[in-house]
Amino acid sequence: MNNIMRNVIRGIIMGITDLIPGISGGTIAMVLGIYHELLASINGVFSKDWRKHLLFLAPLLLGIGIALVSFSRLIEWLIINHSQPLFFFFNGLILGIIPFLLRTANYKKTFQVSHYTLLIIAAILVASTSLIHEGGMQEIWTNLSLSEYIFLFFSGWLASSAMILPGISGSLIFLLLGVYPTVINAISTLNLTVILVTGLGIVFGIIITSKLVQFLLLQFSTLTYSVMIGLVFGSLIVTFPGLPATVPYTILCIALFLTGSILAIMLGRFEHKNKLPKITKKGSMV
Predict the structure, then answer these.
(1) Are 155 and 182 in contact (CB under 8 A)?
(2) Which partner from 73, 103, 215, 278 sits 20 to 30 angstroms from 145, CA to CA?
(3) Positive or negative CA dihedral for 16, 18, 24, 27?
(4) How far apart are CA 286 and CA 132, in angstroms?
């Protein structure tokens, strides 16, 4: 499979996860082994090597677009009718990537008390969003005013910042801000005005946040990884759908959880080998 088709498929996977509250596109980018390359390409679009970076990003964006258009109705249906198996599968994916992140951070040699403290704080902050998770569900906005369009723009900005960070879901930000039903409905019904306004906010947010995250990874690698790992741990609490009510449903959820975990581990071994920088004992990336 050539790199273009592989990136289209990666984009489809990222697009599907971006539709689901609690699942971070940044986490899935880590699972797929393209997180650092994604940050570099976003920041490199405005450099002299923009063609190379655009060649990497274009198939990803195509895949994300395909997923958003093709799967928005399916994801809505699954969340309403079969949310538990769906979230157990993604919980497995998230849990499966944590050992890789710990190895990449070289935590046994680089982590100190301060890093574990940051990890715990980040996990608690993300996990605490589950307390207000349901509060974000509101009605679909129709006949929007100018102020509501402006709110959608800044909602896209905030959500895209979350999309870049592993562990924080852009869809969850939409949910907490009360615009998730409106955005999902706009995608599924091709409401181009809402899509354009929200999309512009997402683009601006991604550009700004990617520069910040890349800077932090280069200058404060160990600290940044400790926070990222905490965010991922916390997202397990946010996405935990509760215990299944029946034995057959329990078996299905466990099977999908194990499938997700095994898939993440296999992807980690296949995609990440000799790709991501390692962190030295002093905290620098090599």
Answers:
(1) no
(2) 73
(3) positive
(4) 40
State the Cα–Cα distance between residues 208 and 161, nearest whole angstrom: 8
pTM: 0.69
Domain residues of the chain, as ranges? 3-271
Please check whether residue 234 is in contact with residue 123, taking contact to mean a CB–CB distance below 8 angstroms.
yes
Quick one: which of 162, 220, 181, 224 has its CA closest to 29?
162
Structure tokens at 88: 């157990």
How many Cβ atoms from other residues are within 10 Å of residue 48's Cβ?
7
Question: What is the rounded end-to-end Cα distance, in angstroms, of the chain?
Answer: 29
Nearest to 67 by CA among 171, 167, 158: 171
% of residues, the chain, pLDDT over 90: 14
Query: 158 — phi, psi (to 5°)?
Result: -65, -40
* 67 in Cβ contact with 16 (< 8 Å): yes
Kindly state the tokens that stand for 126. Answer: 């993300």
Q: Which of 123, 110, 105, 116 is nearest to 168 (CA)?
A: 123
Predicted confidence (pLDDT) per residue in 138-183, tens digit: 567 777 888 889 999 998 988 887 777 776 677 767 876 778 778 8
